[in-house]
Design goal:
It is globular, with a radius of gyration of 26 Å. Helix 3 packs across helix 12 and helix 4 packs parallel to helix 10. The strands form 2 sheets. Strands 3, 4, 5, 6, 7, 8, 9, 10, 11 and 12 form a 10-stranded antiparallel sheet that branches. Strands 1-2 form a two-stranded antiparallel ribbon. The protein contains 14 helices and 12 strands. The structure holds protoporphyrin IX containing FE. Its EC number is 1.11.1.6.
């Protein structure tokens, strides 16, 4: 029987945002081949009480598709929520970059932003003590630019080769399958105790920053230094910061615990309700711009992702704002299938040598090949650039493009109108490198405690008390005493009083020896400018 509405195909159309969706007006239910279904309640049986027949292709199609509904969740940042919006530039960076998204004042660039927790699975709660991912995909007229950041300005490790170990330590333990979404367990603190470079990040992780009151009230940081490249080829280093116009706000631990019990979807629901009721969250985009010569004067290495650049050294410059104003039509199609990648840049933006960033440039595309199952996942509408794009890549699973003609290579003489190199296409910064090849970590990465100390000292007494309580709670869940003692040892380099409070809370009588620090801890107190970081 033909579909009575005379459409022999399922009505899949391009929505206003370019996304594919099934037309809500279609009234006849069909198979995927367009066959109208007369009975969607009963399978085909040999007799009313007899066996179900293999012949029932409608039953088989329906159940087979259902059986394959799930795709692998993200290996980290599995639990997330996202929204569409736009970025509007208010200050031109034309002196520093050729990227049109950063030079054309007033221009609105559409974007998709996904917020996430890091450790838990996709069905975990919204409010554990955890870092929040803050990933933004801007559909610029020069290609997609992804700023894949977190709500903390630094990271746990300095080199991407340690990332699988960090994640294996924080995720549920392999023998028992828990904890689902919390860092309060032996393997996480064991790894941390043996990784002194993580101490700065640990101070942030134990602060109220990891208990946000709302996703609308978190900052976002690109973390690494990137480069901007101008018309003349000159490069300037840049750090990116998103600053919520609602200010940074957190819950306290007791609230977070109660919310986790009362509403697992607390943050997802809050973002949904605020956007669908027209109460659009917005953020300023600010940059810190600095030269190699300035960087040479910093008392730390800006290529080390465990360090931030205090505003007293490089002030923030606000250059635009992001507004999130449209909830996705479909969670799976958009929020789940969106694929961010730090290597998605546009001409005029380039990478620094930060070894953590360099590893990330490889990891995201690689993992997305298995998560999304095809090298053509850029054709999923949420991932597709909104500017023209063309090349000679072809075929592969789920290929939706049908190039015409016989030429699928370049250079060629047979298709003079085909895609060619562009003089204003992406070029890497021209940088001279010298030194000895090897598995070496620069000595300039050795100071693991000074900024941890400066962050702790920049907190109010209440915030410091929260940090001490968080450390006592987390470490009290650690069964192995030597791990607890090792952390207390590190804390002595950060602040003796903090170390004492945590030791007392854990019932430690004899203060352990602090480990040997690879570089002297800078005792200077934070300046007022450092204290403003994150206190909006
Ligand atoms: C996912 C941030 C370090 C590998 C993510 C996401 C964010 C993020 C926000 C979620 C993206 C989304 O919403 O889809 C960061 C930051 C890092 C960092 C800020 C350090 C500064 C690393 C490193 C690696 C890595 C060092 C590996 C070497 C991954 C992978 C995913 C991911 C594999 C899952 C991506 C996907 O399946 O779509 N990261 N990450 N990350 N990150 Fe990172």
């Amino acid at each position: 029987m033909a579909n009575p509405k005379s459409t022999a195909h399922q009505d899949i159309v391009n929505g206003s945002g370019g996304e594919l969706h099934q037309k809500a007006t279609e009234t006849t239910i069909t198979t995927n081949q367009g066959l109208a279904i007369a009975d969607n309640q009963n399978s085909l049986k040999a007799s009313p009480r007899g066996p179900v027949l293999l012949e029932d292709f409608i039953l088989r199609e329906k159940i087979t598709h259902f059986d394959h509904e799930r795709i692998p969740e993200r290996v980290v940042h599995a639990r997330g929520t996202g929204a569409h919006g736009f970025f509007e530039l208010t200050e031109s960076l034309a002196e520093y970059t050729t990227a049109s998204v950063l030079t054309e004042v007033g221009k609105q660039t559409p974007l998709f932003t996904r917020f996430s927790t890091v450790a838990g699975g996709s069905g975990s709660v919204d409010t554990p003590r955890d870092v929040r991912g803050f990933a933004v995909k801007m559909y610029t007229d020069q290609g997609n630019w992804d700023l894949v950041g977190n709500n903390i300005p630094v990271f746990f490790i300095q080199d991407a080769i340690k990332f699988p170990d960090l994640v294996h330590a924080v995720k549920m333990e392999p023998d028992r399958g828990f904890p689902q979404a919390a860092s309060a367990h032996d393997t996480f603190w064991d790894f941390i105790s043996l990784t002194p470079e993580s101490m700065h990040m640990i101070m942030w992780a134990m602060s109220d920053r990891t208990l946000p009151r709302s996703l609308r009230m978190i900052e976002g940081f690109g973390v690494h230094s990137f480069r901007l490249i101008n018309e003349g080829g000159k490069s300037t280093f840049v750090k990116f910061h998103w600053r919520p116009r609602l200010g940074v706000q957190s819950t306290i631990w007791d609230e977070a615990v109660k919310i986790a019990g009362a509403d697992q979807d607390f943050h997802r629901r809050d973002l949904f309700e605020s956007i669908t009721s027209g109460n659009y969250p917005d953020w300023d985009l600010a940059v810190q711009l600095f030269t190699q010569e300035q960087a040479d004067t910093f008392p730390f290495d800006h290529l080390d992702a465990t360090k931030l650049i205090p505003e007293e050294l490089v002030p923030l410059k606000v250059i635009g704002r992001m507004v999130l104003n449209r909830w996705p039509d479909n969670f799976f199609a958009e929020t789940e299938q969106v694929a961010f990648c730090p290597s998605h840049v546009v001409p005029g933006i380039d990478f620094s040598n930060d070894p953590l960033l360099q590893g990330r440039l490889f990891s995201y595309l690689d993992t997305q090949l298995s998560r999304l199952g095809s090298p053509n996942f850029h054709q999923i509408p949420v991932n597709t650039p909104k500017c023209p794009f063309a090349n000679n890549q072809r075929d592969g699973h789920m290929q939706m493009n049908q190039p015409v003609g016989r030429v699928a290579y370049e250079p060629n003489s047979l298709m003079p109108d085909g895609p060619r190199e562009h003089p204003k296409g992406f070029e890497s910064a021209r940088v001279e490198e010298k030194g000895v090849k090897g598995r070496i970590r620069s000595e300039t990465f050795n100071d693991h405690y000074s900024q941890a100390r400066q962050f702790y000292m920049s907190q109010t007494v209440y915030e410091q008390a929260h940090m001490a309580s968080a450390l006592v709670f987390e470490l009290s869940k650690v069964e192995h005493v030597h791990i607890r003692l090792a952390i207390v040892g590190h804390l002595q380099h950060i602040d003796k009083d903090l170390a004492q409070r945590v030791a007392t809370g854990l019932g430690v009588r004899d203060m352990p020896m602090p480990p040997i620090a690879a570089a002297p801890v800078q005792e200077r107190e934070p300046s007022p400018a450092l204290q403003t970081i994150g206190k909006l």
